[in-house]
Amino acid sequence: MAKSLRSKWKRKMRAEKRKKYAPKELARLKQALSLDKKGEVVMTDMQEIATVVSAEEIKEKAMGDDGKMDMDSKRNKKTLLDEHGQYPGWMSQRQAKKLKGKRMAKKGIQRKKKKGIAW
Fold first, then answer.
1. DSSP letter string over 3-17?
2. What is the pLDDT of residues 14-64, one digit of tens each?
3. Which of 48, 61, 104, 107 is most exposed, with minimal Cβ within 10 Å?
4. pLDDT digit string (tens) for 71-106?
């Protein structure tokens, strides 16, 4: 693939464009990674946009966590319903309808057994 004249021309022109913009891109990268006297990255512009957190703080937070996910303990593991009767967000409507049908079928069978006459 990519042997046509058009693709060769496009590849050639992209290479020339890379050559043309390489010095400007290199200057922008150096400016973005400009270091102050201590050897740390200057983050004054970045602090205006977002909160800057040091690597040590992130590592401490990671060490404090045991690696467990926040699980919704109020969700029934068998039916996947929460305390409000809602299915999880990742479950499709078709799958939820199928599970509801199974639940209702089981309820129907149990009720019929209870209504039977005992001899």
1. -SHHHHHHHHHHHHH
2. 999 999 999 999 888 887 777 655 555 556 666 666 777 788 888 887 776
3. 48
4. 556 888 888 999 888 999 999 999 999 999 998 888
Beta carbons of 33 and 41 less than 8 angstroms apart: yes
Cβ atoms of residues 81 and 75 within 8 Å: yes
SS (H, E, C) 39-85: CCECCHHHHHHCCCCCHHHHHHHHHHCCCCCCCCCCCCCCCCCCCCC
CA 96 vs CA 58, 89, 92, 102, 108: distances in Å: 38, 10, 6, 10, 18
Give the amino acid at 84: H
Structure tokens at 108: 């129907």
φ, ψ of residue 41 to 5 degrees: the values are: -70, 135
Instruction: Read off the amino acid at residue 27.
Output: A
Token duo for residue 36: 């102050």
**How much is the pLDDT for 10?**
95
